């Protein structure tokens, strides 16, 4: 059979791949997308979306437990774990199905199968029915990533879980160890801890949420500890001894090893890119450990081969993947003035309780980069809406370049901050200065007023604190 020909072939239908495909189709390209498992990738099926559905259940549970604070009555509060998981899976399936419709609507050829790139301009797809050969001048590799497995700490699905097992628990852990306190580890720790599981988090770095501003990490830690979580920093899990229904973790801190028993362990020690088996190295594509090396336009250095999303390195976030998809599709379609990808302008959000969100330089990184800075802070307790919501724990921190007034970074912890951070992202994208932000009118009563107050505070002008 003759090879089918396209202008652009996308391998992987995660938030990187499917967005690239849609943007390409919008610009008049004849596009094919190849997916081996599930439309929507990790994000919709095993990542962003199902975790947020689980966390919503634990958030509502937490609010019900606090019903009295709001003058309400709720007795015998409980949960049905199967129903919580069923809801999360339902949300994931609904969105994954929606991607199929979007492909059809945009007249994108969808091929379910495993793709390889046997040569430049060629893609071979193993499907249920045999092998399909495709050709295109441009190939976008968007094959994503999977959980990192450390020797001795490998998941078995029974006692030791990856995020996939943690999203579909068959039982509620009683005593849980979470290894790793990045966004994924902390979100699961928060979910299980809120539902009453005795939860310990072990982090090898000197603080939890290590990429966040140190003050925000410390604030979040205090809140988690208040909620009953145990947090062990500068600590390492050396070994897991698996027994019947229990795991003994060998936990090392300050050169001493302590043995602690758990019934469940979640390993959240990072991810590795899906670089294998595609034929990338044979094509001359450069790979650093498990990530493809790309430039600011996601070009691999091999003509006609691009890499986007998790496979193209940090930050490992869905919105970064989608943005890169748009950039590459526009480049391929010959658009003028395509914006390069600026990872430092991409916000990170963690949907634990309290939520954490940030963009740009932390205080430490700004100083390291040689900036003289002005720092503003505003606590949730000074905000009327936060108090009315019963969410008075949190803070908003802003960092400015003292010389130019440029907003270098913004860091938040507290209720709904994952929805608020975009205000600062827009500000940074428009190269906003302190003056613009101070002269902007923020609606009252909203949590967003704290974003204004934090800026005012950096210049000694905060009103409500
Ligand atoms: C538990 C968890 C929670 C997360 N929460 C968030 C969050 O709240 N916010 C956020 O921004 N990010 C979150 N992430 C990260 C986010 O899921 C990823 O950054 C995002 O999915 C990356 O998109 P991608 O398109 O690069 O890859 P993926 O979503 O991984 O998609 C890649 C696709 O390629 C397919 N594929 C791979 N190899 C082949 C092949 N050879 N042939 C055909 N198809 C192939 C895979 O089946 C997959 O569907 C979370 C991740 C996890 C694990």
UniProtKB/TrEMBL annotation:
The keyword Disulfide bond applies. Residues 346-454 form the Pyridine nucleotide-disulphide oxidoreductase dimerisation domain. It comes from the Bacteria. Binds 1 FAD per subunit. NAD(+) binds at residues 180-187, 203, 270. It catalyses: N(6)-[(R)-dihydrolipoyl]-L-lysyl-[protein] + NAD(+) = N(6)-[(R)-lipoyl]-L-lysyl-[protein] + NADH + H(+). The active site is at residue 444. Keywords: Cytoplasm, Disulfide bond, FAD, Flavoprotein, NAD, Nucleotide-binding, Oxidoreductase, Redox-active center. FAD binds at residues 52, 310. Belongs to the class-I pyridine nucleotide-disulfide oxidoreductase family. This is Dihydrolipoyl dehydrogenase. It comes from Litoreibacter albidus.
């Amino acid at each position: 059979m003759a090879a089918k020909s396209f202008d652009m072939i996308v391998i992987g239908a995660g938030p990187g791949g499917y967005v690239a495909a849609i943007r390409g189709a919008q610009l008049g390209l004849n596009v094919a997308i190849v997916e081996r498992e599930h439309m929507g990738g990790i994000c919709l099926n095993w990542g962003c979306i199902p975790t947020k559905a689980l966390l919503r259940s634990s958030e509502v549970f937490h609010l019900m437990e606090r019903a009295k604070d709001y003058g309400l009555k709720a007795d015998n509060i409980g949960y049905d774990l199967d129903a919580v998981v069923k809801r999360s899976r339902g949300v994931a399936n609904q969105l994954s199905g929606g991607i199929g419709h979007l492909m059809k609507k945009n007249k994108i050829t969808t091929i379910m199968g495993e793709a390889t790139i046997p040569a430049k301009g060629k893609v071979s797809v193993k499907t249920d029915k045999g092998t399909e050969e495709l050709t295109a001048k441009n190939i976008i590799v968007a094959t994503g990533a999977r959980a990192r497995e450390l020797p001795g700490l490998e998941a078995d699905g029974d006692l030791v879980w990856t995020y996939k097992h943690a999203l579909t628990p068959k039982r509620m852990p009683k005593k849980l160890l979470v290894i790793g306190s990045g966004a994924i580890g902390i979100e699961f720790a928060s979910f299980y801890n809120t539902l009453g599981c005795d939860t310990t988090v072990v982090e090898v770095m000197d603080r939890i949420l290590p990429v966040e501003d140190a003050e925000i990490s410390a604030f979040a830690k205090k809140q988690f500890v208040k909620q009953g979580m145990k947090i062990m920093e500068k600590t390492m899990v050396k070994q897991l001894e698996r027994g019947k229904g229990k795991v003994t973790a060998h936990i090392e801190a300050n050169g001493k090893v302590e043995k602690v028993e758990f019934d469940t362990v979640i390993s959240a020690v990072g991810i590795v890119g899906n670089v294998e088996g595609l034929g990338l190295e044979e094509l001359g594509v450069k790979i650093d450990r498990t990530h493809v090396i790309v430039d600011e336009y996601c070009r691999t250095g091999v003509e006609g081969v691009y890499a986007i999303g998790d496979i193209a390195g940090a930050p490992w976030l869905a919105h970064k993947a989608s943005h890169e998809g748009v950039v590459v599709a526009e480049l391929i379609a010959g658009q003028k003035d395509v914006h390069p990808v600026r990872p430092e302008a991409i916000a990170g959000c963690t949907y634990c309780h309290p939520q954490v969100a940030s963009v740009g330089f932390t205080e430490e990184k700004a100083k390291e980069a040689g900036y003289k800075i002005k720092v503003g802070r505003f606590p949730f307790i000074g905000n009327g809406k936060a108090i009315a919501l019963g969410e008075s724990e949190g803070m908003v921190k802003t960092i400015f370049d003292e010389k130019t007034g440029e907003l270098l970074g913004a860091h938040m912890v507290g209720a709904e901050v994952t929805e608020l951070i975009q205000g600062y992202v827009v500000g940074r994208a428009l190269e906003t200065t302190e003056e613009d932000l101070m002269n902007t009118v923020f609606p009252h009563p909203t949590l967003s007023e704290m974003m204004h107050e934090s800026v005012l505070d950096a210049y000694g002008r905060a009103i409500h604190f």
